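does this look right to u?? flavin-adenine dinucleotide version
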Amino acid sequence: MPRILIVGGGYAGFYTAWKLEKWLRPGEAEVTVVDPLPYMTYQPFLPEVAAGSIEPRHAIVPLRRHLKKTEIVAAKVTGIDHASKTATITPNIGEPYEFAYDQIVVTAGSVSRTFPIPGVADEAIGLKTIEEAVAIRDRILTNMDKAAGLPAGPERDRLLTIVVVGGGFAGIEIFAELRSFVSGLLKQYPEIKFEDTHFHLIEAMGRIMPEVSLPTSLWVIKNLAERGAEIHLDTQLKSAVDGVIELSTGDSFESDTIIWTAGVMASPMLKGTDLPIEERGRLQVRPDLRVGTADNIVPDAWGAGDVSAVPDLSGGGVGGFCVPNAQHAVRQGRLMAKNIVAELRGEKLVEYNHKNLGAVAGLGIGVGAFQSGKIAVKGLPAWFMHRGYHGLAMPTWERKIRVIGNWVFNFVLGRDIASLEARVHPRAAFEAFASRPRPAAEAPAEPAAEAKRPAAKRAPAKKTAEKSLPSPEGAPIVVGGGDPVDTK
Ligand SMILES: Cc1cc2nc3c(=O)[nH]c(=O)nc-3n(C[C@H](O)[C@H](O)[C@H](O)COP(=O)(O)OP(=O)(O)OC[C@H]3O[C@@H](n4cnc5c(N)ncnc54)[C@H](O)[C@@H]3O)c2cc1C
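got this back:
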């Protein structure tokens, strides 16, 4: 049976595997998905996860639950030698090994693209993963708790200042969602006033959200300004060392929450392959989603999603290629599955041609912006459109029900607002009170009677101490014989 290896189980990889399960006949091919994460992340929900409107586990799709006929491997693909059709797989635990395949599908997505600005690598956080979204939510809640107990001053200001770098879709969505989140929290924090909270978005270009028209983007800026969130256009971040933000305009302030959303780049895993890469570091892909160019096909290799430069036949792409978004990744994943099946059966392949449907952004509870061609919808109707579209676009009914159910619960009961930041040190409470064996050097002097016993019969104190497990009361329990050691 031919072996199909899918590198990355995100949007494009998940849809490819899901549709292959549907369209492959029994015994026609076997499919393996390799991803270090056991789930696909629905990234458009990350701003709402950070703002506490969606439970983190509802915004992901567990691969093993929904890909029942596919082999799932928790690992990274760290090399591809397509000349010999072998991939190097580095498991989350264990030694790397070689995997022989017949067809390879590269859907490894993208990572946050940063610039060497002092302090960014140490202080900022990205917004590409569910873990980052959860960390942002908890950081904001923990900082509200801390600030509530502090007098006015620089430390309090720092805790209550949120900075987002990058005014693209993801940046504006997280900025607006967090503004809505913090404004909503103020009811529960009477110690903090609206004027005490500060929101700054830094954008190097003269406008935000290139996906929507200029009037719509100006409406978003005005709406955010009215809600107490400032957008700095034509402004660059110069430094973020120790959380001190320095802008190209000369402004400076401190922040404990710096979120970086200034673009993405193709997964660097491509560097470990012999597949063709174009000048912007993306996999070179043809309109039929086979790797290669118009005149030079790389047989049995496929690519889609953010990692690939797929020609945009609709004419709407930037530089002639599809922009990195979920709209394309999902449709390319589906078509790729169709084309792989067609190739296995010796049938004709179809070219990818999708005209952009438009863009819809959630900007906090009750506010949204939608743009399709010249049609723009703003405010509450656009927010309903955002929830309607994404609620239905979430793959599988099991996930749709969880997300939509969560929205309904939040509407009735309000958002859940406790920080679980302590989870990053889950053993701290246990460790603080756990009894430990005393180090051998501090062990009490041997009783006189013990000292008189022949040396050969005495248990070696150090060895026994290493084997002792303290009971909850601190009384020693000895494992494997020998004299007990007092751990009190
Ligand atoms: C905050 C945010 C909001 C967004 N909102 C929208 C929106 O509203 N509309 C829209 O259309 N798009 C949106 N996008 C963009 C969209 O989510 C991406 O374009 C889409 O996820 C790309 O899909 P992909 O399959 O290429 O990559 P991904 O979904 O990122 O999947 C890549 C997978 O590859 C895995 N991987 C990486 N390296 C390796 C390796 N070496 N070996 C094995 N596996 C590997 C990763 O773990 C990951 O699971 C948003 C993105 C973000 C970050």
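The pocket of flavin-adenine dinucleotide is lined by residues 7-13, 34-37, 43-44, 46-47, 76-77, 107-109, 127-128, 169-170, 267, 269, 305-307, 324-327, 329 (CB under 6 Å). idk if thats expected tbh
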